[in-house]
Design a protein that fits this description.
The protein is of the alpha/beta class. The chain contains six helices and eleven strands. The two termini are about 25 Å apart.
């Protein structure tokens, strides 16, 4: 059994960094997962600040990019802001856009969900990676972590959702962790648990949703246990 702190960074204001790091470290977790929006505008300077802050955590940290980090595909009249240059900058200054890691007794598959529908070369490369990594179930409990919620919202195109769900089932993924919303959601589809989390920045709507994070406990068998915690006072809700 392992425990993981799962948090949505979402442009955490500098004043809350010490509080967020102290709360997570106090829980003595084995692994920390951050589901995107590590910066506000995706600048080199903000990326450097984020990397410095990571060194203050006691446990290993895995993360994925969010729309504030690399841009996004425009919807309706919205302008597409994701570019090959921004995707490459994230990879060179922060970390890989997609990966598979074995940490703390679990397997984390992290992806850049902003690539879907972008038409960029990296989108095709990420699909090839997913098809390989999810070709069959892994012996360890497997999580998918991405920024955009896969179910329960319209952030992911229907054809992308169906393709991903097929791969998740094929690869034996038990849990999907996402960010972006700034409030928690829980969904279950075909035996897979889908969780969105609080943010350490500000809840939405502001003043009504608390800032916080989530403590995950991963048993060898059965569903992941999750406990939402407010950032202020670090009390279970």
């Amino acid at each position: 059994m392992s425990t993981s702190a799962w948090t949505i960074w979402d442009q955490t204001p500098p004043g809350t960094w010490p509080q967020a790091i102290a709360a997570v470290d106090a829980a003595k977790v084995d692994l920390i997962l951050i589901a995107g929006d590590l910066t506000d505008a995706g600048t080199r300077e903000e990326m450097a600040v984020f990397k410095r802050k990571l060194k203050q955590f006691n446990a290993p940290v895995l993360f994925v990019p969010g729309n504030h980090d690399v841009g996004e595909v425009g919807k309706g009249k919205g302008k597409t802001s994701i570019t090959a240059e921004r995707v490459k900058l994230f990879a060179s200054k922060v970390g890989p856009n997609w990966y598979a890691r074995d940490e703390a007794g679990v397997r984390i598959i992290g992806i850049n969900s902003l690539l879907f529908g972008s038409g960029l070369k990296a989108e095709k490369e990420q699909w090839k990676f997913l098809e390989k990594e999810l070709a069959k179930p892994h012996p360890k409990p497997t999580f998918l972590m991405e920024h955009y919620p896969l179910v329960g919202t319209r952030h992911v195109q229907p054809e992308v959702r169906e393709r991903l769900l097929h791969l998740l089932e094929q690869g034996g993924v038990r849990t999907v962790l996402t960010g972006h919303l700034h409030y928690p959601t829980t969904n279950r589809v075909d035996g897979i648990l889908f969780l969105s989390n609080f943010t350490t920045a500000w809840g939405l709507p502001r003043g009504k949703q608390p800032e916080g994070w989530m403590l995950l406990t991963v048993p060898r068998e059965g569903e992941v246990q999750f406990e939402s915690r407010r950032l202020e006072g670090d009390r279970a809700q």
